[in-house]
């Protein structure tokens, strides 16, 4: 059986969904997914052990997020992604635009801050390190909209339209680094937009929506550019193995269509989450106002009525 320089088969049979979903783990991502689930489970167990609640929905969302990473990196989708541009693009879109959203909805940073023990006075434990990182200048820079939108766009055009992609695809460490980068960029881009975990930037809901839509047109244009190309744009996929029975240009056009379609999917997911958060924020604010009114005899309303009465008196 033929293999490429980094251990991936080059004589795979024609792609089918069943073949793509066969278990074929990448050890780096398999261990990473298991560690992520283990740490999250430890945090939830620690909270419940001391009688604190943690939403089941968050646990489910985080778990599904980790499983989406495993889906594209620990199955033969990863093998086919080395020789088929369209399958690679599915991997890219899932790990950079679906997995991050689900992981962030699981609020892992909030869970860590609640679960990690507080270090003794004068000492520095994991919780304190995490808090320092959250409030650091570095974190303020990488979560600023100018940076997040810029890196989100640059990860597409700077990677696929330059020789960098072929360089990374030439080795297994390079390929792993590229996939980790996609996941990291997605997390950094969606973190301030989702607004579930604490962070340096907590924009209002309207601003979050603007940040979301600011990058999507560039994403859609990237997909369209690939669909309209008259020749293969990436050398790594110029000559697919004959065993696949595919045409390189047709496969690239399919990859462009996948990139274009995926620009809409996260927008819908995030908008649903934002509207849900906005609604519950308004509900909580209304409850707080009602409680305040009960405590002070609706002082705010009484003052407003007195103000209206004074205006009426002046008009006489």
Shape: globular
Give a quick account of the main beta sheet: strands, pairing sense, barrel closure. Answer: none
Euclidean distance between termini CA atoms: 98 Å
Count of separate DSSP helical elements: 15
Fraction in helix: over 70%
Q: Radius of gyration, Cα only, in angstroms?
A: 25 Å
How many beta strands in the DSSP annotation? Answer: 0
Global structural class = mainly alpha
Reconstruct the topology from this structure.
Layout: H1 17-20, H2 27-49, H3 56-73, H4 76-81, H5 85-105, H6 108-115, H7 126-134, H8 137-142, H9 145-160, H10 164-169, H11 172-194, H12 205-228, H13 248-262, H14 265-296, H15 299-315
Overall description:
The chain is mostly helical. It has helices at 17-20, 27-49, 56-73, 76-81, 85-105, 108-115, 126-134, 137-142, 145-160, 164-169, 172-194, 205-228, 248-262, 265-296, 299-315.
State the main characteristics.
mainly alpha; 72% helix; 316 residues; globular
Entry summary:
With 316 residues, the protein is mainly α.
